[in-house]
Design brief:
five-stranded antiparallel sheet; Heat Shock Protein 90; 23 helices; disordered C terminus; alpha+beta; 2 domains
C-alpha cells in the first residue's frame, strides 16, 4: 500500500531523464496552450479581429507564454520563482482586451500591457510590507477559486456546450467518461513510474474514443500553415487620450491585480508540492514569481498581445504525476516557443476533442481544489481564518455565477464581480487587512541586538505578562522563549542593529513576532544532538533553539529582502508544545 501513496519522484531542482522531462513538458503545455490561445479564437469568432490578426495573436501569445514560463523556471537573480510555473493568458483580461481592441486596435492592448507591468513589480518590491496580507490562507482561497472558475468550463467542454448540435450528446458523455476513468485508474492503480502519464493517457484514450465516434475532426490542422509567424500584424503601442481609454486602463489594472493574487497563490502552492521535505514558504521565490510575471507582461506589451499570469492546472498535476522539477517547465516553454512558429501544431491542439480535454481538466481541478483547501488551513483554524475562507470562497462562487445583486454592481467593477478568482482574492485580502488593522492589544519592544539590552527585554516581557494576566508558567515560557531568540540573534550580526519584538494576546494563545536583519539560520531547524555528551559546538549553540521549538508552537521563520520574521505562539493554558524530536541527554 505504501507504494500506492503519493510520492515525489523528482523535486524542484532534480533533473529527470530527457524523455520524462520533455514528455511531461509536452503534457502540461497541451493543457496550458488550449487556454492561452482561447481569447484570440474567441475574438475571431465574434469578428472583433481579422483572420490575420487572430493568427498573429495566437503566435505572439504562445511565444510570450513560452518565454515567461522559462523566466519563471530559471530564476535569474530576483526574477523568477525557480519552480514549475506555466504562464499563459489570464481569463481576467478577456473583457478588457476585447474592449481595448474594439476601441483602438491591438496597439492599445500593447500599451495597456506595458502600463500594467509595473503593478506586479511594485507589489513584489514592497512584499515585505504586505507579508501579513498575502498569507497562505489568502493563497489557498485563490487556488480554490481557480477550481471554481475552471470546473464549470471543463464540464461544459465535456458535455459539448461549445460544439453546435452536440450539447448533452451520448457521444460526448462517453468520450469524457473514458478520458476521466483512464486518468483516475492510472492515478489509483498504476505504479509511480507509469502514473506520470495519467493526464496525457486519459486525453489520448478520450481522443481515440472521439475518433471512433466520428467526433475528432482535423479542421484547424488541415487549414493551418506548416511554418509561419505573421509579424506583419504587429502594431506599435498606442494610447488614445479618451475617457473610454482610461476606463479600459482601470479595468486592465484591476485584472492585473487579480492575476497578481493568482500568481501569489500558485507560487505558494507549488512550493508545498514540489519538495519532499517542505518546511516553510520561501517568500523570496514568491517575490521572484511576481517579478517574472511583470517581465511576462512587459514581453506581452512588446509582442503586442494580452498579459500573462500563472496557470494552476500544472501545479494540480504535481501530486498526481509525482514530478515537480522545473526542467519540465523549461521543456514545456521550449515547446510553446516552437509552436509559435508552427501554426500546424497549434491547429492540432485546437482540434483535440473538447470532451476529453474537459474531463481530464475536471479531474485535475478536483485535486487542485483539495490542494488549495490544505494550503488555506495550513496556518491553523480560528475565528478569523474561518471567516476569511468562508466569505472569500463563497463570495467568489456567487460572483462567478451571478448569484448576488449583480445588477447593482458598477460596470467598472465587472472585472472583479464577474470572476471567482478576482472576487475571492479581493475579499480575502480585504478581510485579512481589516483583521490586521483591527485595534488589538499589542506590546512592542525595540532595542539593540546587544547582550547589554537583554535585561531591558526581560523587564518588558514581565510587564507584558502582567498586563495580559498570564498564568505564571505561561509567563515563564514567554520570557524563556524570547530570551533564547534574542540570545541567538544577538550573536549573528552587528550588535548595534535594531531588533523589534511584538507580543499580543489572541484567543487562547500569545502571538509573538520578532523582526531582525542579520544572517541568522532557520530557527525552525536547530541542530539537535542525539547525545549531549558527544555534541559538537554547533549542536550545543542550538540548544536554545531546541528549547524554543519545544516550548512554543507554530514556530515560523520567514526571510524577505534580508529581513527575518520569527513568529511563534505561547499557549495561555501553559501546555508545552510537542517536542520537534527526541533528544537523548
Amino acid at each position: 500500500m505504501s507504494e500506492r501513496g503519493p510520492t515525489l519522484r523528482y523535486e524542484v531542482h532534480e533533473r529527470p531523464p530527457l524523455f520524462i522531462a520533455a514528455g511531461l513538458g509536452l503534457q502540461n503545455a497541451l493543457f496550458v496552450i488550449s487556454g492561452a490561445i482561447f481569447l484570440p479564437i474567441l475574438m475571431r469568432s465574434l469578428d472583433i479581429v481579422t483572420v490575420e490578426q487572430a493568427a498573429f495573436l495566437v503566435s505572439a501569445t504562445l511565444l510570450t507564454a513560452g518565454l515567461s514560463t522559462a523566466v519563471q523556471a530559471i530564476r535569474i537573480g530576483r526574477v523568477g520563482s525557480g519552480y514549475m510555473l506555466f504562464m499563459g493568458t489570464s481569463g481576467a483580461f478577456f473583457a478588457a482586451t476585447m474592449d481595448a481592441i474594439e476601441l483602438a486596435g491591438i496597439g492599445f492592448v500593447a500599451a495597456l500591457a506595458l502600463i500594467a507591468a509595473p503593478t506586479e513589480w511594485l507589489i513584489a518590491h514592497f512584499f515585505r510590507v504586505l507579508r501579513n496580507i498575502f498569507t497562505p490562507t489568502v493563497g489557498g482561497v485563490v487556488v480554490m477559486s481557480v477550481a471554481v472558475l475552471v470546473i464549470p468550463i471543463a464540464l461544459d467542454q465535456w458535455q459539448g456546450s461549445f460544439v453546435e448540435g452536440k450539447q448533452g450528446s451520448s457521444e460526448f458523455l462517453l468520450i469524457g467518461a473514458v478520458a476521466a476513468l483512464v486518468m483516475v485508474a492510472m492515478i489509483v492503480w498504476a505504479p509511480p513510474r507509469y502514473r506520470l502519464w495519467s493526464p496525457i493517457l486519459g486525453l489520448a484514450a478520450g481522443s481515440l474514443t472521439a475518433l471512433a465516434t466520428g467526433d475528432w475532426h482535423f479542421t484547424q490542422t488541415s487549414e493551418a500553415a506548416i511554418v509561419g509567424f505573421p509579424i506583419g500584424e504587429w502594431e506599435a503601442p498606442t494610447f488614445p487620450g479618451s475617457a473610454e481609454a482610461f476606463a479600459v486602463l482601470g479595468a486592465f489594472v484591476i485584472a492585473t491585480l487579480a492575476g497578481t493574487f493568482e500568481t501569489v497563490g500558485d507560487a505558494i502552492a507549488v512550493q508545498k508540492v514540489s519538495q519532499r521535505n517542505f518546511r516553510r514558504i520561501d517568500y523570496e521565490s514568491v517575490r521572484g514569481s511576481l517579478n517574472a510575471d511583470a517581465v511576462g507582461n512587459a514581453l506581452a506589451g512588446i509582442m503586442c498581445t494580452t498579459p500573462n499570469t500563472t496557470y494552476s492546472s500544472p501545479t494540480g498535476m504535481i501530486p498526481i504525476i509525482g514530478v515537480g522539477s522545473r526542467w519540465v517547465a523549461l521543456y514545456g516553454a521550449g515547446l510553446m516557443v516552437v509552436m509559435a512558429f508552427f501554426p500546424v501544431l497549434t491547429g492540432f491542439v485546437l482540434d483535440l476533442p473538447l470532451a476529453a480535454i474537459g474531463a481530464v481538466t475536471f479531474v485535475t481541478m478536483l485535486v487542485l481544489f483539495v490542494m488549495g483547501l490544505q494550503l488555506a488551513v495550513s496556518g491553523g483554524i480560528n475565528g478569523r481564518t474561518t471567516l476569511i475562507i468562508g466569505v472569500a470562497f463563497w463570495g467568489g462562487f456567487a460572483a462567478q455565477n451571478g448569484l448576488f445583486f449583480m445588477d447593482k454592481i458598477p460596470q467598472a467593477l465587472e472585472p472583479i464581480a464577474g470572476n471567482s478568482i478576482s472576487a475571492s482574492s479581493v475579499l480575502a485580502v480585504v478581510l485579512t487587512a481589516l483583521f490586521r488593522l483591527t485595534p488589538r492589544q499589542r506590546f512592542r519592544w525595540r532595542g539593540r541586538a546587544d547582550a547589554s539590552d537583554l535585561p531591558g527585554l526581560l523587564q518588558f516581557t514581565q510587564q507584558s505578562a502582567q498586563s495580559m494576566r498570564l498564568p505564571l508558567r505561561a509567563a515563564n515560557q514567554l520570557e524563556l522563549c524570547l530570551e533564547e531568540v534574542f540570545t541567538y540573534l544577538s550573536e549573528q550580526g552587528d550588535p548595534e542593529r535594531t531588533m523589534r519584538i511584538e507580543v499580543s494576546p489572541d484567543d487562547s494563545v500569545i502571538d509573538v513576532m520578532v523582526t531582525d536583519r542579520s544572517e541568522a539560520r532557520d530557527v525552525e531547524m536547530p541542530n539537535i544532538p542525539h547525545d549531549l555528551l558527544q555534541a559538537d559546538s554547533d549542536e550545543l549553540s542550538d540548544l536554545g533553539l531546541v528549547i524554543l521549538n519545544q516550548m512554543a508552537s507554530r514556530v515560523n521563520h520567514t526571510k524577505i529582502s534580508d529581513w527575518h520574521y520569527i513568529s511563534f505562539e505561547i499557549s495561555k493554558s501553559s501546555e508545552l508544545a510537542p517536542p520537534p524530536a527526541t533528544v537523548d541527554l
